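Before any further analysis, we paired sequence with structure tokens, yielding the entry below:
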Amino acid sequence: MNLLIENIRTYVPLSAADEKAIRELFHRKEFQKEEHLLKAGQVCRRLIFLEQGLVRYYLSDNGDEQTNYFNKEKEWVCDYPSFLPKVSSTVNIQALEPVIAWTISYDDLQIFYREVQYGERFGRVGIEQVFVNIIKQVTSLYTDKPEVRYEKFLRSYFDIAQRIPQYYIASYVGVKPQSLSRIRKRIAGLRY
């Protein structure tokens, strides 16, 4: 839980009373590798902080999967378009490794906003970051070639790229695994 508290403290100052409220409102949960934190069709009912592990967000259409995001340790996991209005999700969130997480329900998050002195500021700053990341990702999908998307992936996820199976990286970039291999060879050739 200390990692969670330190992460919140990077956004807002916390008093001893704030820390006590956080310890009461968040709950520890573990997920096994390949277990879903959320499946399409379910309502996202928790905001999740990753203490350990790695997850991917993906869409599924007739058996085809499109990976569109990854989260790692010290990051927040949520399908906000489902969580905030309490509607069915269109996205799946799956553990790529065993996960240790701290979760808070929507109702408890409202208590957090009221009881933690700068709780609402924390929520605003967090959602602003999510919004900016989503806009960047959507823009990249429509304007960048796969090679550029792969280079952006390497910059954004340099610390976890080795932990993600190549077929998920290919899906994220928007190419088949064979095409990703060719892109990787071209990029490696340019570096030497």
The first strand starts at residue 27 and ends at 31. Residues 144-192 form one domain. Residues 119-143 form the longest helix (25 residues).
